[in-house]
Every structure is written in structure tokens, then in C-alpha cells.
Amino acid sequence: MIVDPIKIGICGLGTVGYGTYTVLTNNKDEISRRVGRELIVSHIGTRSIKPHQNVGNTRVSNDVFAVAEDPEVDILLELIGGYDVARELVLRAIANGKHVVTANKAMIAVHGNEIFAAARKQNVLVDYEAAVAGGIPIIKAIREGLAANQIEWLAGIINGTGNFILTEMREKGREFADVLKEAQALGYAEADPTFDVEGIDAAHKLTILASIAFGIPLQFEKAYTEGISGITIEDIRYADELGYRIKHLGIARKSDDGVELRVHPTLIADDKLIANVNGVMNAVMVQCDAVGPTMYYGAGAGALPTASAVVADVIDVARSISHPQDSVPALAFQEDSLSDLPVLPIEAVDSAYYLRVQAKDKAGVLSDITEILGDFEINIEAVIQKEPRVHDSEQVLSVIILTDEIREGTMNTAIANIEALDAVSGKVTRIRMDRLE
Amino acid sequence: MIVDPIKIGICGLGTVGYGTYTVLTNNKDEISRRVGRELIVSHIGTRSIKPHQNVGNTRVSNDVFAVAEDPEVDILLELIGGYDVARELVLRAIANGKHVVTANKAMIAVHGNEIFAAARKQNVLVDYEAAVAGGIPIIKAIREGLAANQIEWLAGIINGTGNFILTEMREKGREFADVLKEAQALGYAEADPTFDVEGIDAAHKLTILASIAFGIPLQFEKAYTEGISGITIEDIRYADELGYRIKHLGIARKSDDGVELRVHPTLIADDKLIANVNGVMNAVMVQCDAVGPTMYYGAGAGALPTASAVVADVIDVARSISHPQDSVPALAFQEDSLSDLPVLPIEAVDSAYYLRVQAKDKAGVLSDITEILGDFEINIEAVIQKEPRVHDSEQVLSVIILTDEIREGTMNTAIANIEALDAVSGKVTRIRMDRLE
After folding, report:
1. CA B116 to CA A328: how far, in whole Å?
2. pLDDT digits (tens, 9 = 90+) for B390-410
3. Over the stretch A388-428, which tens digit does the pLDDT of each residue have?
4. Which end of chain A is least crowded, N or C, by CB within 10 Å?
5. Range of A202's domain?
6. Is A219 in contact with B343 (CB distance < 8 Å)?
7. Which ipTM was obtained for this model?
8. Angle of the A303-322 helix axis to the A15-26 helix axis, nearest 10
9. Chain B residues with CB inside 8 Å of A398's CB?
10. Are residues B152 and B246 in the same domain?
11. Nearest to residue A159, comparing CAs of A192, A205, A190, A223?
12. Which of B98, B140, B205, B254 is catalytic?
């Protein structure tokens, strides 16, 4: 590429900061194919590089403000967290004409109005996809994807720690305090878990979602917050009995009177998709006047999922700097970067299979079938053999087999051999199976 | 606003075309607040205006090409469907320097490479969010939201008709042909259902998803397609027994050898979220190297859901014409358009409730509680009264009540009255309930 690379400064090299460095480095080529320009990390501000961290020969300052003052840096990533220093750092970067990407929900929820006003004045971008629901592109979905709609309400599981605790309580019958300890040991919860379990973290995120959904200023101080520390196994069991799950939801709803902004444990019917979002996963449901309900699901925290959102913002900024009128290529990648990777014929695809074989009731047919599968090194995962029933005055039995993954071409031959068995009647029914893993 | 409005030409006034007109009209103010500029429909190309359609005094031509030739039109919406005329119309609009938004998956899957090349040459945008999964912003999620990632595979329920048929077969034990007839009567399936039930429609959409996920040209002709007409109740039952659901999935997967591009019935484990996407709803799961799995769920068809995606594209184009460097406002709406709608205190919020009351085992306590709720006009949805158990050498019984929606302030007073009953011990446990409707 002839044009200069876009230079990125990372402030804060904790979990998210180093995750972001890792994604920008590992997926460098894929990202360049999408942006049409190289992105390089030119400066890192961090108090210390930990032993497992490798940043090559990237310039490192132990003062994050040195990154904000570096004239080479085009986009500053604020990944230090917290309120005041982060705010000061971002305002400094903006004053110096830099675009900013942040993962800091607390700072945006509390100081966002001031920060966005400063950015407009300096004509720079401040993006914050990673601030809400980690790797789920929910800010983009609401600000852009649903922009045709009047948004009526939204409800989200937007704190993974809380969802992990409630899921464990329900599935294993464990008490709150017990699961909280485990969450802390696993690194899902902080030593001081107040922000997570009392709903403050979720309220930061909900404040942001409500603003972009309804077009109101950020008003974190007005959010109602109630935690999950009072939820007991007993209540979870009674809720189950009535057909409900208890989830820690952030709910924002617009009416003629005003906006509801509230985080609290909530019973939701167990046949709703969002009621079945478990463990540390997040999900946000958005109800709109035109499209109706939509839902967005994924990892709400963690180094790489959060980095995914940070880097998506970096790509947005880089694309809009590089190609302002036509920032996103039609097929996502630059036209001169499309790959000629071939599309495989179905015979060359690996898949697991469900097979249903109809056989005359004859001893040994199951062993004949499994022998054929064995000859082709097709592993069997499960078998059902049903009682024979009478069909056209003959005894017919159904054998159902789930297999492991195998090349489709091989399976075709195995099926032909099975169909050739005397005891087998008609065609074998074959349905592919996917583990989605 | 001082600047000129952006002028939109709608070609095709069928279900989607009129839905789009309706959304642009009904949500005019909300859209202007987001774009910072007025959008008006200045020209409609349609063979006929149906009796229920009202387009005010908008200019109407009965030749869609008149819209492509109209020098006033900034953005042309191709909503006529089909392959050849649509292609010609879009190429004409591009040649005339117009931006294009289309909902036409068939045209994009088959003629997209040619159309995008023409658009690049003329420096105009061609957006197509509505072409895949209706109102779900999946194109935006993959092209932008997940752009930091190497996408490993994606799997989607991307044909609502097929999902409706399989859901009905499983839930009601009905045969394929029977449900298909109903789907046709309901307007979910065409008189010739081949495109839907044989997977051709899904293959069009999958072709598009694979291109933007992996950066390969559109290659519809290489997609493997297998329909659901051979699926029987018997197989659905056996799959259930083994812990699986049968869904008509589009799967695209990248390996070192090539790209898999296939639509076929697929067994998936019933504890996966996507296995529980039922009826006409669509969902797409995307597996990425950094963020892991994410899922997007919503209505895949219908007038207003599809219009939601069409208009989102129109807004994208309008924003990038109007504010190329800073197209999306930080809080989704223009800074001078934020609303001062108040955030309501929790006491002013309506909610349904789960109440758990601990009472001494005393006849009449349930009727005392229900009388109090009745006094406050709080309707009861469900009650569980459990056998008394001994606690601190006293008989204690739990009464669990689900109520209808009521103002929180009212519920607070009712709870205070319940707690004041002699027979009631301690605090009432109260958890809010939400129907998410």
C-alpha cells in the first residue's frame, strides 16, 4: 500500500489493552484487507509490561499522557478504565485532534455528554462499542442498524458476572455467596464485587443504551439500581415452578410520560429466547415499531471479545478517515483484496450424520450396518433401534444412527453399501448434523 | 433545517415498497433527528397503486426507469425483485450517479459482482441490508461490527417459511404438505414454494453472507442446496429423542482447503440458543476468532421488518452524504435534537410482580393478603401456597403470588399493609416481572 499506515496509541495494557494489541497484531492482514490501509500500534502507554506480554519494539511510555501528546498517533485507545484520569486523558487527546476509542462504560455514562461535546468541537470521533456488552455490536445495531425505527424498549443481560452467578444458582442449587466466591476465583468477579452484583456496572451500560435508543442525554444518576445479592435458591425454584427464570436485567422503556431506566432482578417467561442466555454470556433484546423484537447475543466481557469491539471501532474510524464517502466496501473487503479460495463441492465437506435405515426384521442387520460404517472408519455416536412394526405385511424395523464427522464422499459410498444389504429396504434417510462449535 | 432534503425514489410498491414508504412517512421526525436532514420520497415507480395504499401527492410513474432518470432523486430504492429488470434498473441508476438501496437477494447473489464494480466506478453506494434476514442488521454486524475478527463459520436460519413449516411439524405433529398449505394460506409461502422450501432463497442469502464474512466474490452457482420437503415427522421425533432439533440451516465455513457453502436440513443440539428459534423468526450465528460466537435474531421477512432494513440503509447513505467524516452522531441523534423527556422515578414505573410472603400457619392469611391486593386493584395471575414447615419452632408457610402490572408506588403501599398483618413474618420478598412484550 502506498498511503501511510494509520497510527494507533494504546493507553492501558491490562486485560483489554493487551487483548486489543493481540487482535491488531494477529489479524493485521485480515484488517488491512478490510480497511484498505495498514493499521499499526505506534505507541503504548502503560505503567508496566507484564512478563507474558510481548509488544515487540513498539514505543512504550509509562505515562499515558505521553501517548495523548504524541503527534504521530492518529487514534488513541483509552483502555485504562475509571472515571477521572480517563476523562482527562480523553479530553487531552481530543484537544490534540486525535480520534478516540474507549471501552470505558463508567466514563461514558458519567462524563459522556462533556466528552462528546468536546469531540464535536474538535471534529474528531469518539467511539465506544466495547463499553456495552463487550463483543456484541449492540451500539452499532442501535445507532445504525435500527435507525429507521422508533425504539419502544430494550432489555439486556449486560453483566456477565451476575448472569454467571444466577445461572449457577439455578443449575446447581448453590447459594449466592458460594457462587460469588467461585466467580472471584475464576476472575469473573472483582475482589470488591459491588459494581457487578449491585447492578452499577449494568446501570452504566443501560444509561448508554437508553441514550442512543431514545435520543436523550446520558443520565446515569437517575438510573434505578437493585442488585442480585438478595436472590435466594428458594425464589429461583418457585419462579421455575411458575414457568419463569430470574435474570438481572437492565430495562429501558419509553412512554409519553418519560423514560424508565432500571436494573433489577426480573422474572421472565422461560420460553423467551433471552431467558435461556446462560453463564457469562450477554444478550440485549430491542423492541422497535417497524422491525418488532430483535436480539443480540455474545460474550459480554473478556480480553479478546472486548478487543473485538475496540478494534471494530478502530476500523470504523480508519475507514472513515481513509474513504469518507464510501467507508465500508460493498463486500466488506477491499475489491483488490478478495480471495480466490475455492468453494468446496459437497463431497469434500466433513459433517456428522443422522441416518435412518429401514430393515426387515432380521437378526444381524444392525451388526451388518455397523460393520460397513466401521470399514469406512465412521464412528457411531448413538444408536436407536425401535421395535419392529408391520408395514405391507412385512416386519419393518427402523435403525437410527448418529455418526461422528466424516467426509461426505465417504459417507455416500457407505450409504450405497448399506442400501445394497439384502435386509435393508429402500433408501437410507440421511440428515447432516452440526455441532456449531 | 436549512439544507435541502434528501430525495428518495421508490421503485416497486409491493409489500416491501409500501412498507418502506410507510416507515419513511411514520418515522419522519425520528429519522430527521438521527440524520440531521430531512428525507422525502419524491418519486415512486409502480405499475399500480392499490386501493389501500396512500402516497399523498408524491409523484408516481408507471415505469420504474423514470425514477432512475429523474435528476431530482438522490437515492433509488430497488424493491421490484427478480433478476434482469432489477439489474438493469440498478445499473441505470448507478450510471446516472444515484446511490442505490436494494432488498433483492437474488439480484445481489447473482449480479452483485457486476453491480458493485459499476458502483465503485461511479463512486456511488449500493447497500443491501434487507437482502439477508429481513430486519436483522446482520450485514452491518458482519461488515463492520465483527470486522476485527477472522470469521471461522456462520450458520443461519435465513428462510422464515421453512422455519415456520419445521416448527409446526414438530410442535403439532403435522406433515410437511399439510403445513405448507397453511403457510401459503397465511401468505408466508408463495404459490410456487420452490424458492423457499428447496433452499434457493436461503442459498442466495448465504452466498452474500459468505462473501462478506470471508472476502470472496459472490458465487451463488457453487452453493449446495437441499430442501426440507423430504423431512418427515418420524425423523423430527427421533431427533428430539436424541436431544436434537432439525432446522433448515445455511452454513458457510472457511478452512485452508476452501469455503463450504451449503443449505440443508441440519440436526443441532436442543440446548443451543439457535435451536430454539421458532416460527417465522430468523437467526444467524457467527463464530469468530476473537469474540467467539455471537447471534443475531429477529424477523426475517414481512413488510415493516424488511422496510426497517431498507430505511436503515437509506439513513446510512444519507448520513454519509451529509456528514462524510462524522456520519453517525455520538448518541445516535443529532446533538441539537436530544429530547428532554424525563427519567421516571421507580415509584412511577408499572410492573408485574412476584411476591413471596412468609406467614405463620393460620387459616385466612391468604384471604387477608388477597383482600389487600384487591383493595389496591392489583390483579393476581397465579398463586402457590406451600405446605407449612417448621422454622424456629413455629409453623411457617410460604405464599407466592404473581400479580398483573401495577404502579410501583401502589405496590409499595400494598406490601407495607401485607407486612403489617399479624400472621405475616418479616419482609415480603418482591421481584419484578417483565413480559418483554
Report:
1. 12
2. 777 778 899 999 999 999 999
3. 887 777 788 999 999 999 999 999 999 999 999 999 999 99
4. C
5. 138-299
6. yes
7. 0.96
8. 60
9. 234, 238
10. yes
11. A205
12. B205
